[in-house]
Amino acid sequence: MIDHLFFTGINILLAWSAYIVLLSGSLSFAQGAFMAIGCYIAGVLTVKFGWALEPALVVAAFGTAFIGAAIGYPALRTRGLYLILLTVGVTFVVRVGLEQFEYVGGVLGFGGMLGATVWHVGVAVVIVGAALCVLSVSPWQRVLDAIREDEAVAESLGINAAKVSVACFSAGAGVAAIAGGLYGHYMAFVRPEIFDILISIFVVLYVILGGVNNMWGAVLGAAILTLVPEYVRVLSEWRPTAYGVVIVLLLLFRPMGLLTFRIVTVRLPNSPRETASNQSA
Amino acid sequence: MLAGQIINGLVVGSMYAMVAVGFTLVLGVLDKLNFAHPEVFMFGGFVGFVVVSTGVPFWVALPAAAVVGGILGLFVEWVSFRRFTGPDGHITAALSSLAVGLILIDVTQKIWGTDPVGFSLPASISSGGIDVAGITVSYLQVIILLSTLALMAGLHFLILHTQLGRSIRAIAEAPVFASLYGINGRRVTQKTFVVSSSLAAIAGTFLSFRSGFASTEVGLVFGLKALAIMAIGGIGDMRGAVIVGLLLGVLEALAFQFGMGVLSDVAVWFAMILFLLVRPEGLFRTRTREGRA
Amino acid sequence: MNALRVLLLTKMIGVALAATFLLGLRPALAEQKPLIKIGHLAAMSGFAAVYGRTQKLAIDMAVKDVNDSGGINGSKIVVLTQDDQLSPAQAVRLYRSLARQGVFAVIGPMSGTQWETVSPMSKRMKVPTIGVNAAKPGITVRPWSIRLVAVEDTIVPEAVGEFFKSYPKIKSIVIVGDVREASSKAAAEMYGKQAAKHGIKVLDTISFSTRATDLSPVAIKIKGLKPDAVLYAGFIPTALLLSKSMQAQGVSMPVLGNGIIWPGNFPHAAGDAGRNWHTMGYSTNKLSSGDAKLYGSFAKRYLAIAAKDSALQQPANISNNTVAYDAVMLLAKIMRKAKISGATDIQEAREKIKNGINATKTYVGLNKYRIRDTGDAYIRARAMRIDTKNKVWHFIK
Fold first, then answer.
1. CATH class of C36-151+289-379
2. Count of CB atoms within 10 A of residue B277's CB?
3. Contact of A187 with C89, CB cutoff 8 Å
4. Which of A23, A139, B173, C301 is deepest in the core (most CB within 10 A)?
5. What ipTM does this complex have?
6. What is the mean pLDDT of the segment spanning B52-73?
7. For the domain C154-286+383-395, what is the CATH code?
8. Chain B within 8 Å of C48 (Cβ-Cβ)?
9. How many CA atoms lie within 13 A of B11 on its CB side?
10. Over the stretch B104-127, which tens digit does the pLDDT of each residue have?
11. A241 contacts B103? CB cut-off 8 A
12. Residue B290 within a domain
């Protein structure tokens, strides 16, 4: 039971990390890579330098966010499908890179990190969730909506779309890093092969199937896709087919995902952005 | 040896080219990603296995694969793409096709198991061959190369010189106007899917002939590479897909030759990243729909 | 309520109470001793499903044998098999779940990454764990876990030595290894050292990637280098690719593959292209290093049961599923000696099993084992080649 909660929490964090990037209109398949980077940074700090888990996680999050910004800055100049493919490429390249990195064991893996508990995950989920809640009722939500809807128009309203997009990409990387660090310190042993392209694909699925319009969609998608296969083990023989059929049916009847509502944004009176967004809505 | 590696690389590349061309055809015409495409490719391998192990002459597998691929293509179009035509429909249709792909993998595994299933072609074509540039190019490889060239030429002819081709191009350019001219969008879409999926299935059969076994794992690997090929060659650009596909085959062969074989299957991603940063519109500066206001 | 009714009610309650008491007593009277539960972690679905299924086949045979011969101090054993889909996270979860269910010991999990994750856990959770698959050396954490499989730091030198001895004309080799996979990378490095030890020249080391879909460039390179033999380390799909490519290029020197290609369907799938391929292991469908009579009857039974599985290519390849059988039998032997039964306290039983395992220095079952200080077993490794007609491995000599 505790294990279920732990892994569900990790998947929720990962789903949110993809959701944050999606807020600015980009679909990222690199969350698996950032999870790996975060896991390794945190692991190196605790195992090789004797740090405690919590500060290691914080450093890992910021470090990965920085790397995310460094990757995002050139990457986000491309658009649409090209951007998606670029993020896929990043995942592959990061995995190969980690395999070549003998300091962290390379292909053979890296172990010894311990100490993550369900409480850590719970706290992380609460913190990130609260941040997203605050975001959704703040003017920034409107800014992100504007960029997502039509970037050219947003630019004409004085929004620096590039900066905001990179910020989102970077934040998403940081959240994925936290998930990765927690995962590593629970399993106590990781290899680069665990951080496969499939993780990135599943993370995107969590968000899209749960509902892309608000933060709870990611939670629902992650929770359902993590827990249902566990409790319906009867289906495990036919699991991929069951998954496939469910997805097809879901998409036929609820193409925007399970939760389609948008969180109502609070109308702050007389805010200049608020007026401008009203006009473009 | 180097020349031999290059020639061998071209044969491998021709299979990449066939998969990528089909992918980019649907993407270019309908602006939709068909994630079931790689799994149709995978299934083509099993068509090859079935045909050869029932003792029928091996070449029968090719039209068989084309037919099976076409049927699967129609099915995918009907299930995953017909309903989702709105602007948000891209992601939904793509996901739906991904799901269909998953189901296809599972069904295939239920029928033939999860291990690769081996089979052998008559030794005369798989072992016998022409010795050129220090390597043996088996008759099978010659057949694959020639067939691919023929199919690509046929596709080229189809797109440029037939009614169907004109309709496809019209829809790719401007779908709204195409319907004004009386082009039946649905029919053309279906035919596009049939062509694309048949090519994929045939490529899959070629791969299984070459490898000597059919496996359910090849779809993911080839599918991802095909995406990278499209990104480099330009989305919707068939010429780009073919050329980049061939080049990739050669690039991977050279990676082995120069001791970097470990990177062979990520070479394409390095190349793609480099390209996208340097020349985001693709090899031939293809204008995608996104490029138009 | 009048007095009569009260009396009636009291009588009814009394009868009910008595009945409950007696009924409660009855199971206790007719009670068998409770079952002894043993956990089993394996991949039962996904691409490795066939390995898990065949392993379960061997385990079920062992369970039947133990129970048919009277069980363990009056208790029958039952093995709870959980499908971990070869995922480390699932293995962790299911291991904990099995521990909570009160298993006395766990057999598995299968992959190297999983074992490396679970073995330290066995120490933290104090559950005896026996590994029966992964062969990478140095990853077993004593005293709560051991591996009954032989690991590559003994298998590779022995098998390579036998290979070189069987083909004395070998003076030069090429090593071909999957360096993106831990076990194969380690094996490839060991090949290099063994070649040096035998004075054999390594012309080149060609690396490739697990997900490669074409190895013809490797075959071409080998053709150009003209070694006397090839040493391969990697999985079955890439072995198949290499064998067919080599056949297509007309290169037919002997190839020695590592232990990963021993289980599974390589002999079937490779067909004629596998003519010159070898592997390393410790038993064939006919012979092993252990008790010959026991092995003979086991093999016959195993093959008969496997013949009914339509998804398996026949004849089935017994390979290392013998170790899973022996693991169950070893546990049974230890439990009998320590007077454990289903009624024993769980922690006490686990402690006793742990002690019994650590006291075991040798064991002869289907294979002959010597337990090393590292917590892994030593089984004499042999080199084997393919009998292409019957599609099975057989010892070189």
1. alpha beta
2. 13
3. yes
4. A23
5. 0.84
6. 90
7. 3.40.50.2300
8. yes
9. 26
10. 988 898 888 888 888 888 777 766
11. yes
12. no
